[in-house]
Amino acid sequence: MSPSPISNDVRQQVLRVIDETFATTKGIRAVVAATADGFDVACIAPGGANATRVAATASSIAAIGQAVGRETGLGANRSVTLDCADGYVVVASTQHAGFDLVISVVTTRDALLGQINYLITQMSQKLLG
After folding, report:
1. Beta bridge partners of 33
2. Residue 62 and residue 49: Cα distance in Å, rounded?
3. Which pLDDT tens digit goes with each residue over 22-31?
4. Whole-prediction pTM value?
5. Which of 87, 93, 99 is CA-nearest to residue 30?
6. Can you tell me whether residue 41 is helix, strand or coil?
7. 6 vs 61, which has greater pLDDT?
8. Terminal alpha carbon distance of the chain
9. H or E stretch including 95?
10. What is the mean pLDDT of the chain?
11. Positive or negative, the Cα torsion across 67, 106, 36, 92?
12. What are the structural domains, with CATH classification, of the chain?
């Protein structure tokens, strides 16, 4: 893989938006922003998640979501939610500074999914801003 073309300024902008949006949210283990091709851009990981691995796998999940949306005629995928034994992972697609991004929010089991989805929408609006 070639290195990510995203500048440090853009990385800092994305990190700032992640931090502003999720820093005080209960149940967050990690928030990882990645390029659509799987390079990590920015991350907060109070739960110690491996940003590089999350970025790579989440970009694949987002791509599968896009394919399913296309094949079912439902349109572009907005997000995919994984219900895991010890928590949730919400993978959402957005854009910033001309780049397609994949946002992964890893939570504990007691996180409120409605709140997480709302915050992802807020974050996406800030990034598109």
Report:
1. 42, 103
2. 19
3. 888 999 999 9
4. 0.90
5. 87
6. strand
7. 61
8. 30
9. strand 87-96
10. 91
11. positive
12. 8-128 (3.30.450.30)
